[in-house]
Structure formats: structure tokens, C-alpha cells
Amino acid sequence: MDLDTQLRAQVELAIGRSVGAAPVLKLKGDASNRSYYRVGTAPDSWVLMVMPPDSLKKSEEASKGPAPTELPFINVHRYLSKLGVRVPKILRFDEPAGMMVLEDLTDQTFEAALATGDRTKLYTQAVELLAQLRARAEKNPDPGCLAFTRAFDEELYDWELHHFREWGLEAWSGKLPTNAERAELDAAFRRIAKELAAAPRGFTHRDYQSRNLMVTKGELVVIDFQDALQGPRQYDLVALLRDSYVELPRDFVDAMLDVYIAAFAKETGEKIEPKPFKAFFDLLTVQRKLKDAGRFEFINRVKGNPGFLVSIPASLRYVKAAFDVQPQLAPLHKLIAHYVPELA
Question: Which residue stretches of 56-164 are H helix?
Fold first, then answer.
């Protein structure tokens, strides 16, 4: 049976009727091993997630913790649904076939909506949703959810920084740091990892950005949450407001951080002090965006997908801006900029 026929058969089993010779369209992929297809024509259409057998229960992002006993997407989907967060409807999952039938949310990502929508209104909606999600998750932890069994700890932050060193500094420049420079990098990365890991942790999407939010009938739908874990409150804000695909000016970012603080206080009654909150946001920006720059080069060289190279300059501009407001990181900034002149 060819793939198109298999996909139509999965839809028919999910909805209990024939779809005939419904058209099948392969959708643009991202950096994951999963493939997506649309069966049918809107409004009578569905999306199929197709997963390689070896990827069903294994995260593509570096993480620790026990091997999951069920598909992470389903596990975290259940938890987010319980919190009242809008996620895609799952119509059928055929684990042996590695195929899942989902509702069709159309192609209107948050990124696409920004082209014609009101930027302030859209980001306010996304930031308030994030504050509500985080507040509800802190109030309702669930040890049965995979996101509560793994975390951004010192080791993971450090690994991601060295992922940048390997791919964003060494591979990018074609040069190796000297032994003394490597020791300096190791020590600086460990200090950053230690400081980030000391922050209180809670449910973190891990990649809450413009391509992982869908806009459907004015509502935001959260997708690509299978790698969720425990992390600081600012982490998902860095993903959204320091997005490698949509650059935002600092004054707008500050305004949106204020929106988050207000929304979180409304949800919980807790008052967050803006100055230390934003300083930690900047430190996390250095870690996350260095990691992204290295990851995009890794995806190019190892996975043969150059589509993310165009997003490296924005990632590095964010890092430079964050370095500029953290004088304690000046020696690290100078060292990295020697190999990555975009940071100079």
C-alpha cells in the first residue's frame, strides 16, 4: 500500500467514513524527524503526523530522565488539555504505523498572522496565555506528565552551551580555541549554567515561538510541546520574544515582559520584581540563542537541512544585545567574538 493510501485509510478509521481519492499534500517540515501531510481540502481536511519508529518515544532534544512509556506528544497533550490550554485535537493514533490523525489547524502560524495582524494584540495574547499556562501548571503539578520528570539542570544548560561551541564557534569559524581559551570557555559556561539552574523551575514548553503557535479563528493553539520539561519562568519568554524567526525591538520586548508580569500576578496574586526578572531574561537569552545558533549549523551539517542558516544572524544579534547589558560577561563576549565576528 503506498503512503497516500495509508494516510487516507488512517483518516477514514479516525472519522468513520470514506474520503475517496482525497488529495494528499506534504506540508513544509521543521527541524524534527516527523513528517506532516494534509489529507483532503479545507474545511474537510485533516493533518497526519508521521513518525519514524525509532523516534516514537525518544526526544530529539537533549534531555535526561527515564525513557517514556508512552508517546511524549500524547502524554504532554493530556496534561495541557487538563490545564485548559488549547492544543490540537487528536482523532486517532496508530502506534505500530507511527501515524497520528490530527485536526487541521490550517497554515496560519503565529508568524504568518503577524504579517497582516496587530503585532501588539497578538503578542499580548501569546504572553498572557503563557502566563496562564505557567501559573496553572505551578498550581497543578502532575508527576505522571513527562514534563515533570526532566529538567533544565546545570548539566543540560552546559551541554547546550558546548553544542554552540562545537557547531557555532568551531565549525562556523573553522578554528579551534587554544587550550587556555577552551579552559576559559569551560569555566564561563559552567558559571552561566550554575546560575540558570539555581532558579525555581516549573512547566516549560521549551520552544514556545512563532512557528509553534497556530492562530485558528482568533484563538491561539499550542503545538510541538512534546519536549516540555522543568525550567525557569523566563525560558519560554526568551523563546517567544527573542524568536530567531521574528525580530522584535527591545522596548517592545520590555513592554511584553511587563504584560507577562501583570498577567501572572492576576492569575496568582504573586508580584514579580521586574528588574531581576528582566536581568535573568537577558542571561537566559545568551544561553538559549547561542544554543540556537549552534543548533542551526548542526541541522545544516548533520541533518543536511540548510533552511535554518538564515536565522543564525538574528540569533547572534540577540546574543550581542544581551551581552551588552551584562558587563560581568565581557571576557566571555570578547573571547567568543574573536571566533564569531558577528558578535563583535
Answer: 72-83, 110-114, 119-139, 154-164
Dump strand ranges (E) for the chain.
24-26, 35-41, 44-50, 90-94, 99-103, 202-204, 213-216, 219-222, 229-231
Alpha-carbon distance of 153 to 146, in angstroms, equals: 15
Judged on CB neighbours under 10 Å (0-12, 13-18, 19+), 96 is: exposed
The pLDDT of 139-146, averaged and rounded, is: 97
pLDDT at 68: 77
Phi, psi of 40 (to 5 degrees): 95, 180
Which DSSP letter does residue 273 get? P
How many angstroms separate the CA atoms of 287 and 323, rounded? 10
Residues 78 and 271: their CA atoms lie apart, in Å, by 30
Average of per-residue pLDDT values in the chain:
95
User: In the chain, what are the domains?
Assistant: 110-343 (3.90.1200.10)
Question: Cα-Cα-Cα-Cα dihedral of 187, 193, 199, 205, to 10°?
Answer: 170
**SS3 of 211, please?**
coil
Nearest CA to 152 among 188, 189, 201?
A: 201
Inter-residue contact 42 to 49 (CB < 8 Å): no
Per-residue HEC secondary structure of 230-243 comes to: EECCHHHHHHHHCC
Residue 224: CB atoms within 10 Å: 20
Average pLDDT of span 63-69? 68
C-beta atoms surrounding 271 within 10 Å: 10
pLDDT greater at residue 276 or residue 55: 276
19-54 pLDDT, tens digit per residue, is 999 999 999 876 678 899 999 999 999 999 999 877
Q: Given this model, what pLDDT does residue 205 score?
A: 98
